[in-house]
Write a structure and sequence with these properties.
There is one protein chain. The protein has one domain. The model has no long low-confidence stretch (mean pLDDT about 95). It is elongated. A hairpin with a 4-residue loop joins strand 2 and strand 3. The longest helix has about 35 residues. It contains two helices and three strands. Strands 1-3-2 form a three-stranded antiparallel sheet, covered by helices on one side. By secondary structure, it is an alpha+beta fold. Helix 1 packs antiparallel against helix 2.
């Protein structure tokens, strides 16, 4: 089964911001790793990794809270998968009856 719900923009904004921050930190780390000739100190690399880890944890926490507050209640706790359209604030949820 599929169900679509719409969440408030401020709720969408929290998840979208956490996602963008995580992705941007990941992209920076990937760039550093792909360009071995960059002159980066081990300390700076460790700081970049720590920053990414913090953003990753913040996104996973926001996602978990979002699922608990909006996704699971909408389908009686039986969600298999979901996706949030940042433009429309629509959440498409797949679940078993």
């Amino acid at each position: 089964m599929v169900k679509v719900i719409t969440v408030p923009e401020n709720v969408r904004d929290i998840l979208q911001k956490a996602n963008v921050e995580r992705d941007s930190r990941r992209d920076i780390l990937l760039y550093i790793m792909e360009h071995n000739d960059l002159n980066i100190t081990p300390e700076r690399l460790a700081a970049c990794q720590k920053d990414y880890d913090e953003k990753y944890f913040a996104f996973e926490t926001a996602k978990s809270n979002f699922e608990k507050e909006y996704v699971l209640p909408a389908v009686g706790g039986k969600a298999n998968n979901w996706s949030l359209d940042y433009t429309s604030c629509d959440v498409t949820i797949t679940f078993d009856e």
